[in-house]
Amino acid sequence: MITEAQMCAVLNEALATGSDFAELYFEEKDELNIKCANGSIRNITTTRISGVGVYLLLGSKSVYGHTNDLSFHNLIAVAQQLAQLLKNQGNNQAKVHDFTQKRYQNPNRVEIFPASVNNLAKIKVAKEAYRAIQDSGIKVKQANVDYFDTDQRVTICNSNGLLTEDRRVTSRLRLQATVQDGQQSLFDWKDYVLPHGFETFRLTANYTDFAKQFVKNILKRLRAKSAPTGVFPVVFESGSCGTFWHEACGHQLESTAIAGQRSDFVDLIGKKVASDKVTIIDDGTIPGLYGSAAIDDEGHPTQKNILIENGILTGYLCDRLGGRRLGLPSTGSGRRQSYTYAPVARMTNTYLAAGTDDDDEMIKSVDEGLYVKGMGGGTGGREFSVEVIDGYWIKNGQIDYQIKGLTLNARGIDIMKKVDRVGKRLETEYGGFCGAASGLCPVTSFQPRMRVTEMAIGGGSHG
Amino acid sequence: MADLAKYYTYLMHLPAPIKEAEVNAETIERQSLIFTNGAVAETSVSNVTELFVRASGVRTGYAYTQDLAEEPEQVIKRAYQNSEVVERDGKDQLNTSQTVKQVLKPTQAEHSSFDSLKQQAQICESMMRQSNEQILNTTTTIRADHRSSHVINSNGVNLESHKTVYYANITVMATYNGLDYNASLEATATSLTGFNYTHICDKINNILKYQINPVKLETGYYKAVLDATAGVNIMMTAWQLFSGMKYNDGSSALAGKLGEQIGSEAFSVKNVPNHPLTGYTYDFDCEGSPVQTQTLVECGKLNALMENLASAGERRMASTGNAGRYALLSGTIPTDIIITPTIFYIEASEQSIDELLEKMGDGIYITESYDVFHSINIASGEFSIPCRGVIVKNGKIEDAVTNLTISGNLQELFQSVLATGSDLYIEEFLRQSYAVGSPSMLVDKLHITGK
Predict the structure, then answer these.
(1) Do A422 and A274 fall into the same domain?
(2) Which of A183, B111, B222, B342 falls between 20 and 30 A from B43, CA-CA?
């Protein structure tokens, strides 16, 4: 790592042609991956990532460069090259303010850093998870358990004088299995992931029960029936069904979509965009959640952002550049997978706030409809889609039978107005990766149980 | 490009008990420009080298580093230490070669200036706006990637290649009857002036046009034409069916079906090292095996699979040059060697999209599909894909229909292909590690859930 004086020199070089802001983002990351295939350790890989991103702004224009040559002379050369791409004729050079070190507490506490644990202990975890799959009593054609741990250290300094850092540790088991039932097979994967160190695996039953349930659910889906076709009410269970909100409106509330006119929520702040039952929050400060961090990837402390309150649009998610383009402050949402991406506004932990409705009544009052218990991924945009991986048909207010996986799609701004029940019990989820312009970022999306009055359903087919 | 001389020297004198080792260096030098509504909004430059290392004693371990200051001894030792806890029998097979050094240079390797990228973006935006007065916003991305691959190993393999890939993407927003609509399309080329902007503009205008004033569609089975872009979206995931590894472990829906008819006579699939419709070209894979031209499916018959050294070894055949790492989206660096395509596509025929629509008569033209990665199960072959389209009557396009879901089984879909179009479209995978293509396809029967 270069010295503070050298950082200052690089920032000065970057500002030499008139940019009004410059930032350096240093990243060091160690990852370990252990692959347990069909019970034996097939591979083990250590990964070392090291690089720096150099970011220049001039009004609402930007230049970004990155390199994994961290030598001072190379960083000066990169800064000079970038400065030539963002010339501001006639303006005086902006000043690099003296650095003030700012320290923010990461909400995710780490007790046992991965590097302090012997690989044999990690192998034991992967094998126990695999054994749990085998002991589930399900006929598993093929199963892999991947153990991952990551330890990312970021240091950010900028021409405003900010100097700050964050350390983000995660531990993850990725389970993959193909389950056979007669002539039919079905593949699925699922992550057991927490933003903690090796203490994630302190209670064996937590991840072995998770692994057993994972393959049991695949078998259940293999035996499921297709859903009826038509327009029906849909009840979405608490927890991971929050993906609905991530895709239906989350991406459209990011400043990139708003400034690029790719959202139905442009110019609607203060306007009604959803039913009164809907309050949507994005909060990167919640302890124990995968999307939380001390700071965003621009050094701004993470914060709680209320995006929709009782159906009224109250804000957008902004990074520094997106905020400039919209005339809004940063919301601590500038995120990126690594130094190889410029930061853009991204979600962290996005959730539907708890309401006042009765969970049981939500299903009992449905004559015929869909109950979504588990969701896979999805796609955002004006029209969004989400993957139902654990769904059931409701008949006369009772869960009747399991349905095959299907995809639900709709226009976000329309469907949000059709939410007629929001339950009291807010439940979080493990989380996963969200892919967008700045790569894959860890997020969670969760909610209490909720109901949409009508959605078109059909085409259940993919297990 | 990283200087691998020190690694090469070390590989030639591996200390006991390390028996074999390999280094694969991948470097991307990138220039990128985003041009929004007549002005440059964002530019970026980068230069990153990744080193993928494997070392074997009795077994094989892996290491990865971006820290170019690390000594080869340290990195290779780390890989070797990882091998000591691996439990599978034997070590990875590495390529052997007597070749001293083979350097494969591109025919055109210019480093583009930002002015030349900007000029292309201006041309693209200008043509787009001239072609459609309803367009309010345009964003054009032009990117130049200078890619270098290097594979060296202790058996004497020393391969190096250099390529330049150009990428263009245009995204527009247009307003019709007070409502906003977006459309986007991308292309790659081997030269900066190699983009067909007329085609891109026509295609984007159709995507916009086919969204306006949608009507309700009754759920049911329809004859359908899948647009080339929808075909690409399906094959972007479905190529995994043709992975030798997945075939061997039973996790492909095509497992056990080599030599069988898995599609109609009109359905053929290829994987090739280069194609005039994409800027991507491949000489060798990440193990140093040359990339083969393969007809995987010929007139519906499953002929061959994509293989790396390990999967090919299981069936006692040669690698087809399909060893890769970046297969799907991942939040971590995928260091494991698996199977990836190079340029993978469904073969086109001579028929235009209009001829396909005329042949269909009445049915649905699926103009766009989305959600590439969550809609297909490779083990079962079942799919459920969100999309939009237009109703076709007597071969003529009528009303738009949106929020549709097409569903079924991939093998049934392949079997029901009546004809393919001449409009082969090839798109890069998001991680820029391979490209996937499809022409439009007329299918006999497709289940479509309407809204």
Answers:
(1) yes
(2) B342
